[in-house]
């Protein structure tokens, strides 16, 4: 998925959590009630999964740093000999092996995280009375869990490991006042995510593709020696630099958003605890 799309998803997650905190302050909730425990459990889950996202991002730093160094080093060369091309190809292969290892690590991370999120989305609430407890707070919290699970799953798929996006939302939620339209909205979001993934897969400007294109051009230098077009290589190198620069900027933006979200969670937990203490 594109960095812009994932940044919007993270902004939505952060905004939804902030709105929940504002709502709680307006409700007359019992002091020390179970509602606070349920909120604390949910905010802890958000905290844990967002830390997993940040870990996945930090694991990419060596990858895009190595690729950027390769592209920058090629600026110093005005003529690509077979020997020089061999050196750069070896560096590219090392970088490609790094991303393969990172993908395997993140695949394990996804297997540990994705199933609990899917289960939360698919969890069925059988009685509307449960949702109306604490002046309707439990219903709002249930909606938050469902939406945040979907948004977190989108982020994990985009940042950590691009897996099949196929969680089933065919719950028995029609007994909820907002059930059918709420789940339909989530279904539309899932469809949008599937379109975004397909678009990015078909996008030839991806960083991995750009690196492979540079490697292919240098392999031609090795095979044909002097018979190559230097302009073509320069264009491929510039595209590589652009792609990895864009990747780095996007990941830094998302990291900053995650840090802000961590601060929001801490402040919200403190604010709700203060409300109970004051009451």
Automatic annotation (TrEMBL):
GO terms for biological process: root development; shoot system development. Coiled coil: none annotated. The chain crosses the membrane at residues 140-161. The keyword Transmembrane applies. Keywords: Membrane, Transmembrane, Transmembrane helix. PANTHER family: BPS1-LIKE PROTEIN. This is Protein BPS1. It comes from Arachis hypogaea.
């Amino acid at each position: 998925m594109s960095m812009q799309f994932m940044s919007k998803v993270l902004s939505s997650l952060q905004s939804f959590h902030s709105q929940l905190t504002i709502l709680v302050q307006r409700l007359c909730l019992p002091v020390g009630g179970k509602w606070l425990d349920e909120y604390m459990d949910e905010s802890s889950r958000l905290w844990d999964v967002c830390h997993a996202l940040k870990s996945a991002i930090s694991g990419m730093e060596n990858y895009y740093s190595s690729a950027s160094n390769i592209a920058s080093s090629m600026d110093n060369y005005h003529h690509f000999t077979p020997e020089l091309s061999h050196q750069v190809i070896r560096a590219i292969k090392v970088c490609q092996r790094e991303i393969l290892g990172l993908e395997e690590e993140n695949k394990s991370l996804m297997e540990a995280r994705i199933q609990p999120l899917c289960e939360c989305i698919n969890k069925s609430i059988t009685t509307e009375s449960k949702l109306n407890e604490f002046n309707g707070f439990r219903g709002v919290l249930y909606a938050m869990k469902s939406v945040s699970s979907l948004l977190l799953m989108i982020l994990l798929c985009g940042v950590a490991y691009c897996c099949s996006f196929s969680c089933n939302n065919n719950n028995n939620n029609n007994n909820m006042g907002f059930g059918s339209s709420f789940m339909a909205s989530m279904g539309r979001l899932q469809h949008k995510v599937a379109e975004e993934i397909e678009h990015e897969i078909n996008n030839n400007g991806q960083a991995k593709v750009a690196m492979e294109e540079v490697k292919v051009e240098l392999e031609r230098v090795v095979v044909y020696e002097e018979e190559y077009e230097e302009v073509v290589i320069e264009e491929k190198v510039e595209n590589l630099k652009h792609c990895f620069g864009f990747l780095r900027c996007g990941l830094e933006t998302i990291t900053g958003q995650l840090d802000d979200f961590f601060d929001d969670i801490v402040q919200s937990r403190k604010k709700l605890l203060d409300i109970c203490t004051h009451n």
